[in-house]
Amino acid sequence: MEELAYQYAQMSEDELRTLNYALTILGGLAGGLTGRSNAELLRAPYFAFSCLVILASGVVSYASVPFMVPAMSGGYFWVLVAATLAVPLIGGFFIARIAKSRSRDAYGHPRMAALAFIPIANFWLLLTPSKNEVSANRVPTIPLLSGGLGVVSGFVIFLAGVALTVQSEMAAEELLSSGDLVPYDADPAVAVVALAAGVETPMAIDELTTLVRVEPDGSVLRYVYEVSGNQTQLNDSAVTGLIQQNCNFEPLTPFIQNGITLEHLYLRLDGSEIGTVAVTKEICGF
């Protein structure tokens, strides 16, 4: 479970965005297929309630950041990731519920609630006027969430939610980039995934060499480089220097001692291999 959690932490922004959207849709399906109600919701309260869902998501994300260090150190990072994944699920559920009420108010039936999950088209659901001026099924709301004041409140709530989400993402990225978060005695396969998640790529090493990606592979942490020029093989002195540098690099030394192998794979621009350098505890003499 921990290894899967760290793989989640290594996902790109686009992958995370896609996953969160899929989970939101899944939660929306659950919310849309459950519950029987005739409630109707006006435009302003619908907007405000939708923003409250965004704020709640931001609060949960922000509140989870201080628990990242103890979770990683204690071996239950997967619990934090599971809670993070539950946020879009629950958010989608509640969005579907209020969207059904908005659809009844605007169209007289809940079937247009699906618009809430479609970018741009969701404004159609939001802005469509009420079908009936008066309805016994209309949900009563406090003045703060009604009319023009409700719109203003919605924008304030929305901005607060976005600000919390951005702050939590920045803090989480900073924490994940710190090797200190990974326990030295962690299972090598777990530690490798966590360490890979903390390396930003691509990274220029010198004029000819670029670190293009870092791959966790079992207990092997593989650094993949692309080398421009006409180099046919690795220089012996450069290989010796790289091994010495890795063996003496204090942040990684405990992980090597615990069984992690550092592998440096050098490729030409066409993908062909120039050479590989492996650094193990035996080579380092630990």
Measured by DSSP, the beta-strand proportion falls in 5-15%
Instruction: Let me know the average pLDDT.
Output: 88
The number of domains is 2
From the spread of the alpha carbons, the general shape counts as elongated
Q: What's the helix-strand series?
A: HHHHHHHHEEEHHEEH
Total of DSSP H or I helical runs spanning 4+ residues = 11
The largest sheet, given as strand count, sense and whether it forms a barrel, is: 5 strands, mixed
- Share of helix, binned: 40-55%
- Going by helix content, strand content and strand pairing, the class is alpha+beta
- By DSSP, the count of extended strands is 5
Structural key phrases:
286 residues; GMP Synthetase, Chain A, domain 3; 55% helix; elongated; five-stranded mixed beta sheet; 11 helices; 12% strand; alpha+beta; 2 domains
Describe the structure.
- By secondary structure, the protein is an alpha+beta fold.
- It folds into 2 domains: 2-176, no CATH class; 188-284, 2-Layer Sandwich (GMP Synthetase, Chain A, domain 3), CATH 3.30.300.
- Helices cover 55% and strands 12% of the residues.
- Helix 3 runs antiparallel to helix 5 (77-107).
- The longest helix is centred in the first third of the chain and has 31 residues, at 77-107.
- The chain is elongated, with a radius of gyration of 26 Å.
